[in-house]
């Protein structure tokens, strides 16, 4: 018997949903003229408007009660104090310590001195690169950086450097290589001057085959260009220093992070070095500051006034009580175009599990499918389904009040669409007599308005979603900090790889996989076939 779906709070919500399923959001506004004020929250220049949801005060109280019944308060304190919240790997999850100030003990040792030491090394290194005192071949100033990494070793720095591009002055251009597809690294290397290129290899395990293959290709490229000193232009960021040294990167060029930092939670570690290189270390420290401010908000706010808890519990409401399978992330800001991709990994790699921390299958839906795109492009892609489709798709709309550009007219049009879409989804309309032109409305959304996209507010935003994911996993009783599900595919790929190194018919797999491999072998590059196995 599940303690979750048989709990008083869960059953109360299940009953309450019967009522709210027939509620109209517009009627909820009519019933409460102060609804916007009562269902919105401000934290440090960020406004969350959750009034356009299928909830009333009872809903929010019942959701808060569920969070209390699931022990959210104690789980949160355990997270911040370095408890082994990542039970399957017997680790803490201390991304909060990376941006914290107070001592935090892991196995009895305060981790903050090494956190601060690494920040100091990042400061010295990024200052040196930006000043030219740390340079490339023949004293060439570093004009470009190649960041090689994938998943959490890519998405965070990629998003942050794109979002903070207006702050990138006086530093090198940063290029990201993640996919093993040779096209990715070839496209990156083509325009670069090797002598002035710094290479950063980022891998927590330093065993991810895509990253190591890309690193070898870039090392060959660099060696061909500058000779044996190529290694001087390599830096590694990893929790496995030994493997980085074995790869050939000198220890003084290795920035460590630790096993108590999850890959998808690692932007706040040395993994975020590209932000310091492109925008300066003060910008990276501001990013940390913003995330820390969200940490403090999360730690010190009652559920009903906690932005992460509100986002999390609204997601639980639609996921577990209305059967919504997906959550749309819709940034109305080109600088945040990669936010859906970043949140996909953060959320789906944390919450996409079926077994709880007690080792038993959970008996409710867990992680939602996170997807989305930047507005207004998204309006010309999938908004038809959002407005007139048959599915309930809760959506987070995110926008910035003050853009960095001076295109006032452009921004006004963008913001007019931002405001219009959530209103139209909620209010609907019967534009004409035909059924096809009827907009049912009553489609819920959250609106997040940020005063200005700065390193600090970006830190606030990303930490908000980190804690939202954490809260949802507390409710479901899942460990959000491991990712066993990514191993099976990797292992099978490692087994298939040598079978591609010949032209023999495949026969070691299921009939489909054998057939696919045979078709590939019959149609791949004939130069390879004539050349035969390497
Ligand atoms: O996707 C699986 C995963 O382990 C992610 O959790 C991680 O961010 C990514 O691969 C890269 O791992 P690493 O940083 O060890 O190369």
At a glance:
Helices cover 46% and strands 13% of the residues. By secondary structure, it is α/β, with parallel strands linked by helices.
Features of the shown structure:
534 residues; alpha/beta; six-stranded mixed beta sheet; five-stranded parallel beta sheet; 15 strands; globular; binds 6-O-phosphono-beta-D-fructofuranose
Shape: globular
The number of helical segments is 20
Q: What is the number of E strands?
A: 15
The amount of helix comes to 40-55%
Residue runs with pLDDT of under 50 for 5 or more positions: none
Secondary-structure content class: alpha/beta
Cofactors and ligands present? 6-O-phosphono-beta-D-fructofuranose
- Sheet of most strands: 6 strands, mixed
Distance between the termini: 57 Å
The residue-averaged pLDDT reads: 96
Strand content: 5-15%
Oligomer: single chain
Radius of gyration: 25 Å
């Amino acid at each position: 018997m599940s303690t979750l779906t048989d709990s008083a709070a869960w059953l109360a919500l299940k009953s309450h949903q019967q009522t709210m399923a027939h509620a109209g959001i517009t009627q909820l506004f009519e019933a409460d003229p102060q609804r916007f004020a009562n269902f919105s929250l401000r934290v440090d220049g960020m406004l969350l408007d959750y009034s356009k949801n299928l909830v009333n005060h009872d809903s929010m109280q019942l959701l808060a009660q569920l969070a209390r019944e699931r022990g959210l308060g104690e789980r949160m304190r355990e997270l911040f104090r370095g408890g082994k919240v990542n039970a399957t790997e017997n680790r803490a999850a201390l991304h909060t310590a990376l941006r914290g100030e107070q001592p935090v003990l892991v196995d009895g040792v305060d981790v903050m001195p090494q956190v601060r030491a690494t920040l100091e090394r990042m400061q010295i290194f990024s200052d040196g690169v930006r000043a030219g005192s740390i340079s490339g071949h023949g004293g060439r100033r570093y004009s470009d950086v190649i960041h090689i990494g994938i998943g959490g070793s890519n998405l965070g720095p990629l998003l942050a450097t794109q979002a903070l591009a207006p702050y990138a002055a006086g530093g090198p251009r940063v290029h990201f290589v993640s996919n093993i597809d040779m096209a990715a690294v070839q496209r990156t290397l083509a325009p670069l001057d090797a002598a002035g290129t710094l290479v950063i290899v980022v891998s927590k395990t330093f065993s991810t085959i895509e990253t190591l293959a890309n690193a070898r290709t870039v090392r060959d490229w660099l060696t061909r260009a500058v000779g044996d000193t190529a290694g001087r232009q390599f830096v590694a960021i990893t929790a496995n220093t030994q493997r980085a040294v074995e790869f050939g990167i000198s220890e003084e060029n290795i920035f460590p992070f630790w096993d108590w930092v999850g890959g998808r939670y690692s932007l706040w570690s040395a993994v975020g070095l590209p932000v310091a290189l492109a925008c300066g270390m003060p910008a990276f420290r501001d990013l940390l500051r913003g995330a820390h401010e969200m940490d403090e908000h999360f730690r010190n706010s009652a559920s009903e006034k906690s932005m992460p808890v509100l986002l999390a519990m609204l997601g639980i409401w639609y996921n577990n009580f209305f059967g919504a399978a997906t959550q749309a992330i819709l940034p109305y800001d080109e600088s945040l175009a990669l936010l859906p991709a970043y949140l996909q990994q953060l959320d789906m790699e944390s919450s996409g599990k079926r077994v709880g921390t007690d080792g038993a299958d959970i008996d409710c839906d867990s992680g939602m499918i996170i997807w989305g795109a930047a507005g207004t492009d998204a309006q010309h892609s999938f908004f038809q389904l959002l407005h007139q489709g048959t599915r309930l798709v809760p959506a987070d709309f995110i926008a910035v009040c003050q853009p960095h550009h001076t295109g006032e007219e452009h921004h006004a049009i963008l913001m007019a669409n931002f405001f219009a879409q959530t209103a139209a989804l909620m209010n609907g309309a019967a534009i004409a007599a035909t059924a096809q032109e009827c907009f049912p409305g009553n489609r819920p959304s959250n609106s997040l308005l940020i005063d200005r996209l700065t390193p600090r507010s970006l830190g606030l935003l990303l930490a908000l979603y980190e804690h939202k994911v954490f809260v949802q996993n507390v409710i479901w009783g899942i460990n959000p900090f491991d990712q066993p599900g990514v191993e099976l595919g990797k292992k099978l790929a490692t087994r298939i790889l040598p079978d591609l190194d010949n032209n023999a018919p495949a026969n070691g797999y299921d009939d489909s996989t054998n057939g696919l491999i045979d078709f590939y072998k019959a149609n791949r590059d004939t130069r390879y076939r004539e050349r035969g196995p390497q």
